[in-house]
Design brief:
Helices cover 75% and strands 0% of the residues. The chain is an all-alpha fold and 464 residues long.
């Protein structure tokens, strides 16, 4: 087509259009190669996920094993009070000052670790979220090492903290280290951090599917097929490694669940509302505890108070020490009366809020599940006799309580449903679990509560 001489031609646009058409022809002609490259990328992502999962499985297995050994030592120290028990540790345990010295050493070491690396404080999940958002940048090796030993000492000393938060952060740092040592791009590094985090949760609780869902629902809050593939590969691999050490049994002993009829589902609705309110109260209490304990200076004074609190709990309510794993099973088996469960719920709530407020490396996943189990057990123990329902159904409401309180506090209902199903080894209660999680989630939203990890991340970023 010929152009009149008086009409200027935009030669730059014409050239760009020509280049664009040429590029399209090249891409079209090379389509089989592009498809092969895409397929190879998926294989590489899965392979990297497997390698990260293998490393995370080893790290978290060592972490869990160390915690189990410290739990045994702490229980011996608390349980033995005289030298006539025949135990080799009896003499040591009979001297209260010796246990206090150990607690003091642990407390001051943990305080020093947090001083050297503030990003190991608390759960670690908000730090991982900040890392994925590009708002937080950590030294992966320093966080990995100090979180590992600090978490063992803080949780093993008897504070009401869980292993899942540290496990997720440890897994994320393993993924970041793998990325840095292999020279990956920043976008791929975030994918590997996500995969390592999911693998950490999978190995900590024997819940590979929950690890994948937690990454998508809470850490990333989006669905990326590449992240799904890498996280699934990492989670399955890490759980496979952990199974060699801890076996294939679920975290909680399988209860004989006696489910109510559909006519009794009104109790589940009421329980969901109560759990939603408890979740909002818990999150706000966490913030208050952090504010109050943040004013305690110097750091050694806060560590000393923590030691005293552990000693007091060891004397008054030793069953409430540590993560509280045994409380879930004992409540589910109906070993406590209604009054005892209510008392334990109150004591454990206060101690859990205090423990997390110290800033020691430790999570709130397992402590909040324990609170949910106690809340569910207390609910059915009090309400069932009042409305003429048969007693002995604690196990079912313990499971519901864990799922509902998780949804209210974390605001990740799908993760809570899958996590509880995997931890109890049963998928037969998905309908009531979904109902209680939905009701507790909506209740927390209506009451204006903020999701706990968003709340904690905002606090971290505000101090920078």
């Amino acid at each position: 087509m010929r152009y009149p001489a008086d009409i200027p031609r935009d030669t730059e646009k014409i050239q760009m259009s020509y280049k664009s058409r040429k590029l399209k022809r090249i891409n079209t002609n090379n389509m089989p190669g592009a498809i092969r490259a895409l397929g190879n990328l998926k294989y590489r992502i899965i392979l990297e996920g497997i390698l990260v999962g293998l490393l995370v499985g080893v790290v978290i297995s060592l972490f869990r094993y160390s915690l189990s050994q410290l739990d045994v030592l702490r229980n011996v120290i608390v349980g033995l009070t005289d030298a006539e028990s025949g135990s080799p540790l009896a003499w040591f345990a009979g001297h209260q000052w010796a246990g206090l010295v150990i607690l003091g050493v642990f407390a001051f070491l943990v305080s020093y670790f947090v001083f050297k690396e503030p990003y190991i404080s608390g759960s670690g999940i908000p730090q991982v979220k900040g890392e994925l958002m590009g708002r937080i940048h950590t030294n992966w090796l320093r966080v990995l090492s100090l979180k590992f030993f600090g978490g063992i000492m803080a949780i093993g000393s008897g504070l009401a903290l869980g292993r899942e938060g540290p496990s997720i952060q440890l897994g994320g740092m393993v993924g970041k280290g793998f990325s840095r040592l292999s020279g990956r791009l920043k976008s791929e590094e975030r994918m590997l951090i996500s995969a390592g985090s999911g693998a950490g949760l999978a190995a900590a609780f024997g819940a590979p599917l929950a690890g994948v869902v937690f990454v998508l629902e809470e850490l990333r809050k989006d669905f990326d097929p590449k992240v799904l593939l890498s996280t699934m590969a990492a989670s399955v691999t890490s759980e496979y490694v952990a199974s060699f050490v801890f076996g294939l049994d679920p975290v909680f002993t399988v209860f004989a669940l006696s489910k109510p009829t559909l006519n009794d589902y009104w109790m589940i609705l009421i329980l969901g509302v109560l759990l939603g309110a408890i979740g909002v109260l818990y999150n706000r209490s966490i913030a208050l505890s952090q504010d109050l304990q943040g004013k305690i200076k110097p750091a050694w004074l806060k560590a000393l108070i923590a030691c005293i609190m552990v000693v007091v709990m060891a004397k008054l309510y030793p069953v409430c020490l540590g993560s509280g794993h045994s409380l879930v099973e004992q409540t589910g088996f109906g070993l406590y009366s209604a009054g005892t469960i209510v008392l334990l719920l109150i004591v454990r709530f206060v101690y859990s809020v205090y423990s997390f407020g110290t800033g020691a490396p430790g999570g709130i996943f397992l402590p909040l599940l324990v609170l949910g189990a106690l809340a569910g057990g207390a609910f059915t123990s009090v309400v069932s006799p009042l409305v003429g329902l048969p007693v002995g159904n604690e196990a079912f409401y313990v499971v519901l309580g864990m799922a509902g309180l998780f949804a209210a506090i974390v605001r990740a209902p799908l993760t809570g449903i899958i996590l509880i199903s995997e931890m109890t080894g049963t998928l037969s209660s998905l309908l009531p679990l979904s109902l209680v999680a939905l009701i507790s989630y909506l209740t927390a939203e209506v009451l204006g509560g903020e999701p706990v990890y968003d709340q904690l991340l905002d606090r971290i970023l505000s101090k920078r």
